[in-house]
């Protein structure tokens, strides 16, 4: 048995920690939206439950977040109904996850509906797709955490996203993919990259970061403009990088994911360095927002941006609205941009309206252009 199958390794802990922090933020938003009646979480490669070293795996982590939400909403008028479906092809793991859930007080009486299955992902997927397709005023969250790259195909992600009611978190051992594309490509991988690349030529001489960003770009092209894609990297050592891909059709959910990521690594928002794993991720917690400045200037050089467009561009570039405001303030202070209201008058200095509320209700409140 591989060590990773026994104990939870630190890079897996980082992965589950991201899942936990993201769910904490996501569930609070959904539970307060006065619309969502039920939340369905699917853990399709569930694993052990609790590992021998005491660390909680994904299903227990999701269930704990559900319990937390229930407790937080115990005085509120309502809480969405909560459903956890978990699956593993190994019956012993399904049993140990059930046991771990019960050990955490998450059983029949907890108010969370638990549905375990023991089957291959390939067999379960059509049921999950039809379930998420049939959702009404409900949301779903799907966690896909295979050992390798073979089981999951790009089209699976599109199928899961199609109804616009789901968020998908996909763990990929990018490093293995990278090694394979560097040195002869096995069939499953060439199928994966061919499907993802849709006939485009794969760039040569990419380093691992270039590779990860390219896969992110291909995924966003593949799923299309209605969806948002982001990555979170977990660097185990200088040559080993794992990657979590995050997909959603909800810009608000996407913003929450980015918040979580930036909280975990305040200087680049990029991901987790294994050596820095723990509380002290960076020496200086200064966000590196230069890339965003370049992106905004490049875009403004082509055409003016409304506050709604600047908000969306910022998120799609992997940055937070606060970063955008910081960049715009600095450009404004240098006299490089002009900001006008919809009636053509000059906007108040420092007012850019880069946030979700304005994106939704007043996306053209101001226009930002090169001075
Ligand atoms: C990386 S582990 C999952 C870890 C788990 N998500 C956690 O956080 O603890 C992958 C799991 O997928 C299961 N598995 C592997 N191939 C599978 C398949 N084709 N269908 C369903 N489960 C599979 C394995 O038994 C293993 O428990």
What does this 3D model show about the protein?
This protein folds into two domains: 3-276, Rossmann fold (3-Layer(aba) Sandwich); 290-370. The chain has 14 helices and eleven strands. It has helices spanning 3-6, 10-31, 58-72, 91-103, 121-133, 154-161, 174-182, 187-197, 208-223, 251-264, 290-302, 307-316, 321-333, 356-361, and strands at 38-43, 81-87, 112-117, 138-144, 166-172, 228-237, 240-248, 271-273, 305-306, 337-341, 366-370. The strands form two sheets. An eight-stranded mixed β-sheet has the order 3-2-1-4-5-7-6-8, sandwiched between helices. The protein is globular. The protein binds S-adenosylmethionine. The site of S-adenosylmethionine has 17 residues, from loops.
List the helices and strands and how they pair.
Layout (H helix, E strand, L loop, with lengths): L2 H4 L3 H22 L6 E6 L14 H15 L8 E7 L3 H13 L8 E6 L3 H13 L4 E7 L9 H8 L4 E7 L1 H9 L4 H11 L10 H16 L4 E10 L2 E9 L2 H14 L6 E3 L16 H13 L2 E2 H10 L4 H13 L3 E5 L14 H6 L4 E5 L1
Parallel strand pairs: 1-2, 1-4, 2-3, 4-5, 6-8
Antiparallel strand pairs: 5-7, 6-7, 9-11, 10-11
The structure holds S-adenosylmethionine.
S-adenosylmethionine binds next to loops.
């Amino acid at each position: 048995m591989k060590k990773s199958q026994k104990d939870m390794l630190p890079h897996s802990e980082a992965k589950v920690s991201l899942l936990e922090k993201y769910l904490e933020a996501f569930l609070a938003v959904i539970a307060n939206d006065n619309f969502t009646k039920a939340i369905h979480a699917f853990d399709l490669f569930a694993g052990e439950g609790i590992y021998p070293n005491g660390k909680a795996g994904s299903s227990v982590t999701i269930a704990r977040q559900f319990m937390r939400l229930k407790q937080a909403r115990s005085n509120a008028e309502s809480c969405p109904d909560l459903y956890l479906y978990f699956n593993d092809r190994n019956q012993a793991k399904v049993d140990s996850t059930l046991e771990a859930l019960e050990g955490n007080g998450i059983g029949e009486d907890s108010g969370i509906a638990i549905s375990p299955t023991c089957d291959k992902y390939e067999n379960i997927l059509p049921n999950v797709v039809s379930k998420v397709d049939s959702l009404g005023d409900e949301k779903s969250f799907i966690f896909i955490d295979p050992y390798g790259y073979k089981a999951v195909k790009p089209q699976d992600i599109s199928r899961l996203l199609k109804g616009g009611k789901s968020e998908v978190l996909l763990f990929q051992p990018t490093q293995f993919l990278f090694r394979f594309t560097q040195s002869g490509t096995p069939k499953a991988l060439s199928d994966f990259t061919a499907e993802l690349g849709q006939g485009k030529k794969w760039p040569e001489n990419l380093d691992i970061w270039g590779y990860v960003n390219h896969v992110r770009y291909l995924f966003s092209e593949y799923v299309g403009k209605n969806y948002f894609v982001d990555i979170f990297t977990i660097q185990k050592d200088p040559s080993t990088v794992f990657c979590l891909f995050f997909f959603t059709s909800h810009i608000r959910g996407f913003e929450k994911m980015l918040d979580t990521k930036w909280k975990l690594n305040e200087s680049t928002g990029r991901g987790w360095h294994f050596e820095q794993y723990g509380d002290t991720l960076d020496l200086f917690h200064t966000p590196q927002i230069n890339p965003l400045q370049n992106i905004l200037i490049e875009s403004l050089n082509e055409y003016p941006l409304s506050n709604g467009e600047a908000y969306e561009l910022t998120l799609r570039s992997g940055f937070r609205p606060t970063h955008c405001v910081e960049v715009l303030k600095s450009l404004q202070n240098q006299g490089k941009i002009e900001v006008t209201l919809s009636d053509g008058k000059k906007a108040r200095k420092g007012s850019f309206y880069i946030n979700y509320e304005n994106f939704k209700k007043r996306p053209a409140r101001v226009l930002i252009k090169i001075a």
